[in-house]
Amino acid sequence: MARPRWIYFKQIFPTKFQASCTKAKIEDNWINGYEVGPLVEIRKLKDERYVVRYTYDE
Q1: Phi, psi of 25 (to 5 degrees)
Q2: Above 70 in pLDDT, residue 58?
Q3: How many domains does the chain have?
């Protein structure tokens, strides 16, 4: 099985709450759609900021 390809959201967030709001928006775009939704996760950076990334399937 191939490893997933990750796309990083263009913004770095100072709080986990802000990152989770963006995560929810990305996940909501696929609800009741015809496509399988992406895996979305929040990653913590070394400087205590957060980034959102999601999978890309061809």
Answers
A1: -65, -40
A2: no
A3: 1
